Amino acid sequence: MSIKPLVILPDSKLRLISEPVKEITQEIRQLTEDMLETMYDAPGVGLAAIQIGVPLRIVTMDVSKSEDEREPMVLLNPEIVWASEETRAYEEGCLSIPEYYEEVERPDRVRFRYMNLKGDVIEQDADGLMATCVQHEIDHLNGVLFIDYLSKLKRDRVMTKFKKAAKREAGA
Ligand code: ZN
Known about the structure:
Layout: H1 26-41, E1 46-48, E2 58-61, E3 73-83, E4 87-94, E5 97-107, E6 110-115, E7 121-126, H2 128-141, H3 152-171
Antiparallel strand pairs: 1-2, 2-3, 3-6, 4-5, 6-7
Bound molecules: zinc ion.
């Protein structure tokens, strides 16, 4: 396993539409291990493969509260199959947009379907942090970021900030 560098805003890779996983190969298993290690190291509660530069429909998550009892989840080709009409605002952040947090309103509860590493197709209900996290991560597979839900003013401000930071980095 190894920790991979994160793709950071404004990198255009974050806007790619990721491709479905067709077969669970050793490479896919290796990739999910790297994703989990990178996610725990960051630390974060969720990671999409594109955030380490791989445009495949893979998400890792762990929304368990305690570090002693990790509950890693690997979702292949995840999709939302139902969402509640009720919404809830949660303060979100993103490993690709470091140290920036804003409230985003999303459906309060969702049902999602995914394939696990054994190839089983699973449907699961989520609320609270898991509901927010799975929606945020599936958005990544479609090139959508949580800042897309903010006002244009806020989005422009954060884009400008990260473009400047990237320029500084390139110049250093
Ligand atoms: Zn994110």
